[in-house]
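Tip: read the tokens left to right.
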């Protein structure tokens, strides 16, 4: 139950899917047609040689490597680099999916321009060679499990891969481990298995109160209407004036969706706290909050109602399974890159190509392309897809004509700071259960909405490679969710499943894919997703002793989570990397290292005042997650 887990639960069609935000929308606008080598996770994020396999790093400090924020300065070469039909800013999964669809299905020459030396954004994979054992290990940087890839209903990501004829070998499995209170006398271990009635007859009856089962069954019944869109493939979704045409064959389903009204895009609050339904059993509320936090970095009452409905449905249907791509999540990225570059159009993913500006025509009526930091220009005949975090949009606008239009022709005031999900006013970080107040007059333009969108929390990562000799992998799960202070938290009203570094994901993929590590070794990735407040790190210098000490201190909860599975893991470790919110901010260009925008602040689609400029990414509805 982490961002990785969140990925699996976005309804394949009901949430407009990944194609709604960019490729499909854009197509509608197109003409016709302790002894270990301890290093920092940040060291792999920018390789000065461009080789994924290169091992050039000898220091543990963030400052000892070249970051994406330290690219060469602009020069004065303003010649046209190339002409494309569509230029895409950012080679995260959103940009890659858009490019693969446009290249393969619509015959458009696509250029994707990425600052990083690897494609994939937050989902890229990377190799590290251990100086202690000499072996090379492949790590997933972010997501760890999916659902809806190996069997129907297929999620949007799987639909895109199928559409561009880039199959993935998926490994299905049907359970993950739950661990509460690791390292304490109150240690509790249980197993969450997918499928009908297993949850109800197992954990729900064991841990829930006398009304928990009845409430859960009633909740599933009350949310059934939100599942209508599952019958519509994601690839049928469009935006703009032609949106309804491919949906006419699903007319009866459309009527069901329309009957749900605003519930289709609202939060789950009416199902948690009334008036539609009210969950009273505390254990069930905690469980739903844990699921929700993995989806959105927010409690259930602030998470998408449709996403929650799909979780409740899909985990407990016949044939439900989790999926892991054989070879790791880098294989998904590789498949999408192939989808972008296949054929004879000349479409290409350009790495180490930082985009400096989005450009427009002299009269400001249309977007004409982009300019790279090195000064070279790319002319985009049909337009531009901007797959950057919404808070970064302003930094790409240097032309007053574009700025004015994105501001709805209003005066461009000083940009407002984004609101934050985590509240530190009491001294203890707490997730806000209610959306921070918003002045409607301050959000009268697209740019203002982007600037002020509420940011959820950040990440803390621990990647390790270990000597696995003597371990019985058959007795382990491929994935664990570890609740450090129990599912309920420490008992205080401000804690719980959404509490600071309480929910920790432990990905243990070698249990199902031994090809990920050399024989006799295994890789493990433990992380807190959305529950590490950036404010704790703000202003720190990356090369300072204070920063290094804080990384070690904060990572203890991640070590504790892994030790609940492998008690002697520290002695076995041959490579370790710690990634902080500053890591996320600096190397993945995530402002404040954020998980993504809060549900209530998702942009409804990727449209802008320019018909040929489309926004994509995890702050566009349906939001956070790989298929989104």
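Filled-in amino acids:
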């Amino acid at each position: 139950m982490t961002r990785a887990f969140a990925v699996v639960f976005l309804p394949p069609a009901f949430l407009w899917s990944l194609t709604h935000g960019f490729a499909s929308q854009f197509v509608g606008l197109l003409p016709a047609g302790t002894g270990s080598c301890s290093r920092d996770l940040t060291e792999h994020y920018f390789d000065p040689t461009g080789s994924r396999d290169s091992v050039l790093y000898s220091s543990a400090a963030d400052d000892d490597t070249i970051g994406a924020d330290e690219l060469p300065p602009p020069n004065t070469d303003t010649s046209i680099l190339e002409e494309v039909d569509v230029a895409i800013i950012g080679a995260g999964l959103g940009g890659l999916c858009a490019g693969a669809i446009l290249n393969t299905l619509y015959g458009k020459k696509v250029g994707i321009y990425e600052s990083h030396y690897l494609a994939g954004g937050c989902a890229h994979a990377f190799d590290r060679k251990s100086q202690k054992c000499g072996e090379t290990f492949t790590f997933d940087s972010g997501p760890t499990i999916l659902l809806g890839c190996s069997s129907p209903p297929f999620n949007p990501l799987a639909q895109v891969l199928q559409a561009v004829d880039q199959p993935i070998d998926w490994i299905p499995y049907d359970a993950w481990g739950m661990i509460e209170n690791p390292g304490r006398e109150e240690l509790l271990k249980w197993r969450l298995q997918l499928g009908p009635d297993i949850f109800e007859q197992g954990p729900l009856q064991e841990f829930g109160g006398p009304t928990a089962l009845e409430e859960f069954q009633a909740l599933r019944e009350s949310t059934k209407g939100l599942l209508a869109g599952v019958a519509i493939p994601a690839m049928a979704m469009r935006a703009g004036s032609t949106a309804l045409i491919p949906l006419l064959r699903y007319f009866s389903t459309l009527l069901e969706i329309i009957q749900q009204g605003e519930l289709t895009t609202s939060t789950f609050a009416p199902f948690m706290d009334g008036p539609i339904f009210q969950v009273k059993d505390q254990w069930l509320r905690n469980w739903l909050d844990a699921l929700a936090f993995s989806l959105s970095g927010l409690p259930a009452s602030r998470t998408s109602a449709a996403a929650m409905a799909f979780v409740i449905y899909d985990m407990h249907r016949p044939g439900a399974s989790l999926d892991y791509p054989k070879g790791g999540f880098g294989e998904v990225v590789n498949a999408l890159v192939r989808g972008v570059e296949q054929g004879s159009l000349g479409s290409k993913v350009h790495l180490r190509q930082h985009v400096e500006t989005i450009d427009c025509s002299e009269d400001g009526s249309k977007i004409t392309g982009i300019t790279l930091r090195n000064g070279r220009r790319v002319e985009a005949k049909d337009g531009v897809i901007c797959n950057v975090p919404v808070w970064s949009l302003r930094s790409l606008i240097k032309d007053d004509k574009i700025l004015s239009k994105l501001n709805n022709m209003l005066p461009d005031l000083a940009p407002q700071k984004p609101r934050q999900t985590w509240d530190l006013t009491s001294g203890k970080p707490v997730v806000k259960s209610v959306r921070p107040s918003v002045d409607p007059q301050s959000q009268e333009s697209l740019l203002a909405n982007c600037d002020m969108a509420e940011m959820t929390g950040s990440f803390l990562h621990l990647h390790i490679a270990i000597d696995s000799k003597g371990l019985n992998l058959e007795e382990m799960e491929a994935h664990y969710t570890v609740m450090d202070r129990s599912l309920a938290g420490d008992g205080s009203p401000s804690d719980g499943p959404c509490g600071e570094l309480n929910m920790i994901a432990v990905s243990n993929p070698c249990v199902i894919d031994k090809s990920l590590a050399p024989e006799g070794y295994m890789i493990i990735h433990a992380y807190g997703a959305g529950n590490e407040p950036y404010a704790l790190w703000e202003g720190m210098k990356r090369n300072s002793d204070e920063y290094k000490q804080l990384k070690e201190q904060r990572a203890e909860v991640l070590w504790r989570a892994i030790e609940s599975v492998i008690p002697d893991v520290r002695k076995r470790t041959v490579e370790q990397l710690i990634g902080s919110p500053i890591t996320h901010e600096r190397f993945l260009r995530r402002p404040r290292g954020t998980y993504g925008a809060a549900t209530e602040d998702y942009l409804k689609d990727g449209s802008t005042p320019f018909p040929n400029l489309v926004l994509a990414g995890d702050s566009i509805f349906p939001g956070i997650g790989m298929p989104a």
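Confidence is low (pLDDT under 50) at residues 1-71. The chain is about 25% helix and 20% strand.
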